Amino acid sequence: MSLERGEWNNEQDLSAYSVRTDLALEAQEMASAGRTSRLPGVESETETHEGMKITRIRVLNEEGVRTLGKQIGNYITIEVPGLRHKDSVLQDKVATRFANEFASFLERAGIGKEAKALIIGLGNWHVTPDSLGPLVVENVMVTRHYFELMPDQVHPGYRSVSAIAPGVLGTTGIETSEIVQGIVERSKPDVVIAIDALASMALERVNTTIQIADTGIHPGSGVGNKRKGLTMEHLGVPVIAIGVPTVVYASTIVNSIIEMLVQNFKKQTSNTQAILGMLDGMPEQERLGMVKEVLDPIGQDLLVTPKDIDQFVEDIANIIASGLNAALHEAVDSGNVAAYTH
User: For residue 5, how many other CB atoms are within 10 A of its CB?
Assistant: First the structure.
């Protein structure tokens, strides 16, 4: 550890020690910490409805990109802490709200009701926290084959939808972006919808939060594996990303616990320096850097997920699949979307 006389070495490069999160909402929270003015280049609004908190963030320009570390575009986050209670009635409400938000997202993006959609379920079938994408693909309503083989028998209110779970590089030996690019070139969809598992900086958001973004997606980014992404630039068609955080880094959890200890001691005494030493007043990024320097060499900066992750992932996958079915097909009743998964 780079400590000199009880102080963190200020000359150390801390860029690798930023809190890892794929959520624009959490990036905004970190950027807003300690600020009284609005973030430059960023617009946001929040509403609460029936136990759901919906936050809409818009990164307007390059200044906003520097502020949040997110690409120019629109981000919608739906937070539903009650999903942890496995309430089927609430799950139906979330699916309906997600369907409405996604339909509005398509409309604002200029994607018409007749536009052909390709759904990509990113992730690994065999790793539960990473199986969200394939599980969604398993439950969405695919119709492209009907439009191709018997278009005269397709009822009004449906659009051409295809779906695939291309697997991961470690099992296919092929970059996901290459597989998707080949499918896009042959099937010629008007929009690509990519579903993937994300990483959060807060355990309470794991499996209770859905993010929609029109900036595309980078497979593996949640676990620090940066590769060629699924974006408009690479695929030539708009890409809408849907993500759910399913993991948190151990270093992030430890850092959060230290912060909670600091705040708790400050409520009980003004002499926190005697108890916490150098941790008292240490900037968050420096504290996280110290935690990572302890955990990384012994291989303990683990990806952490809840013990009942299998049920959580299945539930949230059904919510997303149900919402997509209603948002993409007018004939599906948006008030009863759960009836349309199989």
Answer: 4
Instruction: Name the strand (E) or helix (H) holding 243.
Output: strand 239-249
Structure token pair of residue 155: 């009822």
| List of residues 6+ apart from 220 with CB closer than 8 A | 168, 169, 226, 227
- The token pair that represents 58 in the structure block: 């818009």
**CATH dotted code for 14-245+306-330:** 3.40.50.1450
Q: Supply 320's token pair.
A: 């997303």
Q: Are 247 and 302 in contact (CB under 8 A)?
A: no
Handedness of CA 33, 51, 83, 327 (dihedral sign): negative
The C-alpha atoms of residue 92 and residue 95 are separated, in whole angstroms, by 5
Q: How far is 43 from 35, CA to CA, in rounded Å?
A: 15
Q: Are 136 and 195 in contact (CB under 8 A)?
A: yes
Tens of pLDDT along the chain (342 residues) come to 333 333 334 343 334 434 568 899 998 988 887 777 889 999 999 999 888 999 999 999 999 999 888 999 999 999 999 998 889 999 999 999 999 999 998 998 889 989 999 999 999 999 999 999 999 999 999 999 999 999 999 999 999 999 999 998 888 999 999 999 999 999 999 999 999 999 888 888 999 999 999 999 866 554 455 567 899 999 999 999 999 999 988 877 887 777 777 778 778 777 777 777 777 667 766 777 777 777 776 666 678 888 889 999 999 999 999 999 999 999 987 555 554 454
* 121 three-class SS: strand
Domain boundaries along the sequence of the chain:
14-245+306-330, 252-298
Alpha-carbon distances of 273 from 264, 270, 281, 319, rounded to whole Å:
13, 8, 9, 48
CA-based nearest residue to 313, from 233, 207, 160: 207
Please, which residues bridge with residue 284 across strands? none
- Please state the pTM of the whole predicted model: 0.83
The two tokens of residue 189 are: 């969809």
